[in-house]
Amino acid sequence: MTHPSRSGGQILVDALQVHGVDTAFGVPGESYLDVLDALHDSNIRFVINRQEGGAAFMAEAYGKLTGKPGICFVTRGPGATNASIGVHTAFQDSTPLILFIGQVGTDFMDREAFQEIDYRRMYGQMAKWVAQIDRADRIPEYIARAFQVATSGRPGPVVLALPEDMLIAQAEVADTRRYQPVQASPAASQIDTLRGMLKEAKKPLLLLGGGTWNEQACADVTKFAEANGLPVACAFRFQDLLDNEHPHYVGDVGIGINPKLAARVKEADVLIAFGPRLGEMTTSGYSLLTSPVPKQRLVHIHPDPQELGSVYQAELMIAGGAPETARMLAAMEPVDSSAWRHTIEEARAELRAWQQQPAIFQDGTHSSRPPLDLWQLVQDLQAALPHDTIITNGAGNYATWAHRFWRYGAMRTQLAPTSGAMGYGVPAGVAAKIVDPQRTVVTFAGDGEFMMTGQELATAVQYRAGLILIVFNNNMFGTIRMHQEREYPGRVSGTYLENPDFAALAEAYGGQGEVVLKTADFAPALQRAVAFTNEKKLPAVIELRYDGNLITPGATLETIRKNAEAGKK
User: Mind spelling out the 3-state secondary structure of 52-81?
Assistant: First the structure.
C-alpha cells in the first residue's frame, strides 16, 4: 500500500519501525533535522550521546547484545569521522550496525562544500556496503537492503549517506516487508564428513567464536560438545559462547593464552573452529596453526564463504550460520569419545591452575603482595555479582584481569572489541544498561581508556543507566609502556599520564565515586556501588589507584625491563 506523500525523513523513520528498530544512538546535526523531527512522534528511543565515537560504540554494543543491527545517526564531516571507530569495530567484530550520516544537499555536491566527504570512498574498506540515498522514493528499498546486508552471512556494518535536500523532499511510496536475515546451512554430507573425522580423532578440540550466535545456537553447540565429549575453548573476546562454569569449558584462545591451552590447540589432531575468523588475535599471531596448511585436521565453519580458505586451507570448510550449523551438529549421531573424554578434566584442571592467584613482585630474594591485589578484586566481584552480569571493556592490559580470571556466564555477558579499540568499554556499558536495565553491568576501563569516552557518563546519568565502572588508574598507557620496556628498556616516551580524580569526576556528572587504595577496601566499596546503582539508577565509579609496575598478572615492568636489558647485552 502506497502511503500519502511523506518527507524523506518521515519515510526513513517509518522504514526503521517496519524493521523493528526500538533504539537509536547518535549526536544531532543540522544535516538531518527532518529525521530528528520524524523521530519526535515515533516509537523509537533516540539516545543522545556526547560524541559520535561513543554513539557508534553504543550502537555496536547494541548489535552484539541483541543480534539486531545497532542504529546510529551522526552529522556529516566531523561527525562521520568520529563515528568511524565504531564502524571499524563492527566490521572486525562481525557485528550488525547501520550508520546514517547527514550529507550536504545534492546541489552542493562535488564542490568540497561545508563538511562534505564522499562516504563511499571514506568507508569503502571498513563496511559491508556504503551507499548514498539520492531519491526519497527509494528510501524503503535502501533501508531494507541495509538491514539485509548487515545481518546476512557474516554480519557487519552498513553506511548510508542522507543528502539534506533528499530528506525534506516529498514522495509517495509504499513501505517494504521486514528484513529476513539469510544464512547458509551445511550440507548433510559435510556433517557426515565432520563426524568421520571425529571418529578417527584422538585429541579433538572445539573452538567457538564469531558472529550470528543466539541462545538456541549456544544451547545446540553445548549439546553437541556434551554428546561427543569435546573440550571447548572460546576465541578472543567471545568467552561467553559457553558458560565458563560448564564442565567442558577449558579456556580462551587469545591474547595472554594459557600456555597449556596453547599446547593443546597445537597438538589437536582435529580442530573444529566454529565461527571465528582465525585472525591474528585468536591464533596468537598465526602461530597456533601453520599457514596455509595447518598441522591439525582443521574444520572451519564460518558464515562467509570468502573467509574460508583466506588464510588457512582447512580440510573441511563449511559455510553456515551458527544457528543453522549448531542445530545440525546437535542432531548428529554422537561418536565414541572414550579415547579423549579424559582430556576435558585435565584441561579444566589446567584452567583452574591458570586462574589461581598469580605470584607477583618476585625478585628472587623475597616476595610481597602489592597493596591492591587485582586478582582478589576480581574474586570479590565474582562473589558479589549475579552470574549473568555483563562485563564490558576496551583495549589495554587491565582487561587481562577480566579475560583471565572472570568466569563469564552464558550469552551475552561479554562486550569487548576484537578490533582492540580503546574507548569501547564505557559506551558499551552504558548501552548494555540502557538496553537491559535489569541486568548488572560492570565496565573495566583503564585510565587512558576511560579518558577517551568517559564523557558518556553524562549519557548514563541522563538515561538512568546505573552501571558500575572500575577504573584501573596506573598513570600510563600501560600496554604501550610494556612494549616500550621490552623493545627500548628504560627509555620511557609518550606513555605517562597525569590524570584527574576519577571519583570526583563521577560525582560531578551526578553519579557516585570512590577511590580504593587497598585490597580490603574494595569489597565494601563495591557493596556501596551496587546499592547506589540499584537505588538511584545512576552510574558509580570505583577508581583503583595502584602501582603501574604491576603490568600483567605474570610480569612487572621492572622484570620486563631487566630481561630486555640482559637480552641486549
Answer: HHHHHHHHHHHHHHHCCCEEEEECCCHHHH
Amino acid at 172: E
Classify strands 170-171 and 6-7 as parallel, antiparallel or unpaired: antiparallel
pLDDT tens readout for residues 193-203:
999 999 999 99
The pLDDT tens digits for 334-372 are: 999 999 999 999 999 999 999 999 876 444 433 567 899
Q: Position 27: which residue type?
A: V
Give the torsion sign (CA, 325, 329, 332, 336): positive
| Assigned C-alpha cell, 337 | 569419545
Using the structure block, give the residue that is written with the C-alpha cell 551445511: 186
pLDDT at 569: 65
**How high is the pLDDT of residue 105?**
73
**With the C-alpha atoms ordered 181, 66, 86, 18, is the resulting torsion angle positive or negative?**
positive
Q: Before 292, cis peptide (omega within 30)?
A: yes
Cell of 255: 591474547
Quote the CA–CA distance of 393 and 426 in Å, as a whole number: 7
Question: What is the length of the chain?
Answer: 569
Closest residue by Cα to residue 520 from 407, 329, 350, 380: 380
pLDDT for 225 equals 98
As given in the structure block, the three cell numbers for residue 547 are: 602501582
Give the per-residue SS3 of 359-397: CCCECCCCECCCCCCHHHHHHHHHHHCCCCCEEEECCCH
Per-residue CA distances from 569 to 164, 281, 335, 492, 531 (Å):
64, 31, 55, 19, 55
Residues of the chain scoring pLDDT < 70: 1-2, 108-110, 113-116, 360-368, 569
Dist. CA 200–CA 159, nearest whole Å: 47
Distance of alpha carbon 34 from alpha carbon 164, whole angstroms: 8
- Chain centroid to Cα 184, Å, comes to 24
Query: What is the side-by-side strand order in the sheet with 441-446?
Result: 414-415, 390-393, 441-446, 468-473, 540-545, 512-516
Buried b (16+ CB within 10 A) or exposed e, 440-458: bbbbbbbbbbbbbbbbbbb
Cα 459 from Cα 538, distance rounded (Å): 10
Spatial separation of the C-alpha atoms in residues 268 and 60, rounded to whole Å: 34
From residue 488, give the alpha-carbon distance in Å to each of 83, 478, 567: 34, 15, 11
Determine how many CB atoms are found less than 10 A away from the CB of residue 486: 15
First to last CA, the chain: 79
Q: What is the pTM of this model?
A: 0.95
What pLDDT does residue 556 have? Answer: 87
Question: What nine digits make up the cell of 349?
Answer: 584442571
How confident is the model at residue 550, as a pLDDT?
A: 87
Residue 154 corresponds to which cell in the numbers above?
557474516
H helices present in 249-335, as ranges? 259-267, 322-331
Q: With CA atoms as reference, report the closest residue to 39 among 72, 13, 74, 15.
A: 13
Q: What's the rounded Cα separation, in Å, for the pair 327 and 188? A: 12
Residues 6+ apart with CB under 8 A from 101: 31, 74, 75, 76, 79, 80, 83, 119, 159, 160, 161, 162
